[in-house]
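Following up on my earlier message about fe (iii) ion. Here are the inputs again, as you asked, copied directly from the submission form:
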Amino acid sequence: MDKLLIENIGMLATPIGTSARRGAEQGQIRILRNAWLLMEDGLIADLGTGEPPQDITERFDVEGSLVTPGLVDAHTHLIFGGWRQNELGLKLHGVSYLEILAQGGGILSTVKATRAAEEEELFEKAWDALDEMLDLGVTTVEAKSGYGLDVETELKQLRVIRDLNEAHPIDLAATFLGAHALPPEYKENRESYLRLLCDTVIPQVSEKKLAEFCDVFCETGVFTAEESKRILEAGKRCGLIPKIHADEIDPIGGSQLTAEVGAISAEHLIVCPPEGIEAMAKAGTVACCLPATSFYLGSTYAPVRDMIQAGVPVALASDFNPGSCPSLNLQFVMNLGCLRYKMTPEEVLTAVTLNAAAAINRANTIGSLEPGKKADLVIWDAPDLDYICYRMGSNLAGTVIKNGKVERGWLHGVLD
Ligand code: NIG
Ligand code: FE
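Thanks, got it. Here's what our run produced:
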């Protein structure tokens, strides 16, 4: 049996439970001081305070560090060809995100690059991004398709996600986002694209077991609330769990749809109206908020305090993509959670661990440090939780453990 003991933990901070925490509970985490944690066969076997078990040979003194669950990034567009640095100048000259898209740039220029890329090339590029995420303390990642917008390339992106999940230490959850934009070849024929998605692509994705979730970009000039509903219902019929990009730029009814379709999460929510908050509270939908996107777009910030007040569980994620958020740094997202959303460090921790796990239907296996859950954890170069929410721009993830194995940091190799 493969046992590893982490001892002399200065602060162990973790949410508790196997479902999303909402309202006041989002900030009620377990804090243990002078703690230890025992891992066995990739799972957490036990943890406590005071004297650790003495009969374990492989043991590491972490010298008073903070230990938390591994971070979960519940919203990324990880698989894409090219980058879009050329849009920075346009942006600085006041051309808006939706204007760039309407001119055939934005998402559509990444679609061109992704269609042109070989599968191996996409794999290598995303592998490097995952390596960087692991360095930053991320142990599980959701990844979307949506830069193919045709059968062949959507399936290519999803196969890359499947292969990365098998090969990379990080676990991935796949989301089908064929409704990310209207492809140029269907510009005059929306209905045919909707039919292609509902009648051909979604059934194939499901049959090949290439995704667990179905997402849509419900936005002005992209897909209406009615079209979004149609796509998500088609996904549901094929066993795909609904997610929605809602209220990112215009509030056109995306967040209200959550209750109608039973969405597991709604994403962005920058301009979420009170009725949307009500719908999410009613449906138990996780609000997956993406503050680095607000930062990069220079927009306002999602009304997270109102959501917490209304009993909506909040997750925070990176939204890593080449257009609206060219950053995969979840530690920066945590800083913004405090500074821009006015969340407490405790609420932020829940948002990037247990609630993020709930947004991808994994709250029973990851997202908290409890016996029986996966031994995914970060030993921080930090004495406490406040410190990692307050320091900015440095990577404070000291050692990263995934499935009980040291993947990064100063313990790496000690075990081999
Ligand atoms: O979540 N909003 C839609 N999709 C992405 C952006 C994709 C892109 O610009 O390439 C987002 O922000
Ligand atoms: Fe997104």
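One observation from looking it over: The pocket of fe (iii) ion (ligand 2) is lined by residues 75, 77, 245, 267, 319 (CB under 6 Å). Hope that helps, and feel free to reply on this thread.
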